[in-house]
Write a structure and sequence with these properties.
Layout (H helix, E strand, L loop, with lengths): L14 H23 L2 H8 L3 H8 L2 H21 L8 H18 L2 H11 L3 H5 L3 H21 L9 H22 L3
InterPro entries: Homeodomain-like_sf, HTH-type_TetR-like_transc_reg, HTH_TetR, NicS_C, Tet_transcr_reg_TetR-rel_C_sf
Organism: Roseinatronobacter monicus
GO molecular function: DNA binding
């Protein structure tokens, strides 16, 4: 095979893929180190990009954190949107939602750690996300329909709030994990 002196072809960066790589690296960094302990240079190293490139894409460390937090919510909501929650079988629908949520937490352990980090900061970043309500609203609407049907059929109590129901799953999962760690069981 003849050798040539031609330079190797330049690889063009796929902007969306690069953004996704940065977000995934940020999810891992912020969830393992918390907001104050996270370092942009480690995010860059994990994503395989330069530190200035991260700032080009996102602006500041706080902006990267906000984008990563938003991405965490988008990922879980995207999966939930694909669930076939049957409002005519409310018990099975809630069971399916809980099963999906727990499976998501097992597959993406950074999710709970990131939420814990945000909670330690008083939820200030998630409160500032301009589309946070939109991200949540589809699932809240679907769950409201399921809960309403369950209430009509006497399956669920009348005072069950869909938002409370959604937020209690991560807390219950965290409590379960903490109890397992304290008791030494796996």
């Amino acid at each position: 095979m003849p050798m040539t002196d031609a330079p190797p072809p330049q690889r063009r960066r796929d902007s969306e893929r690069t953004r996704g790589d940065i977000l995934q690296a940020a999810l891992e960094e912020f969830s393992s180190m918390g907001h104050s302990g996270a370092r942009v240079d480690r995010i860059a190293a994990r994503a395989g990009v330069s530190k200035p490139m991260i700032y080009d894409y996102f602006g500041s460390k706080d902006d990267i954190y906000a984008a990563a937090l938003r991405e965490a919510y988008v990922q879980i909501r995207r999966g939930e949107a694909q669930l076939a929650l049957d409002p005519n079988n409310p018990r099975a629908a809630v069971r399916e939602l809980v099963h999906f949520t727990m499976d998501h937490f097992r597959r993406k352990p950074w999710f709970i750690r990131l939420l814990n980090s945000e909670n330690l900061m008083g939820g200030k970043t998630v409160a500032q996300l301009s589309d946070a309500a939109d991200i949540q609203s589809v699932l809240v609407t679907r769950l409201s329909e399921v809960l309403a049907q369950g209430k009509r059929h006497g399956v669920f109590r009348r005072d069950v709030d869909p938002v409370e129901c959604l937020t209690s799953a991560p807390m219950e999962h965290f409590r379960h994990l903490a109890e397992r760690r304290v008791s030494g069981s796996s």
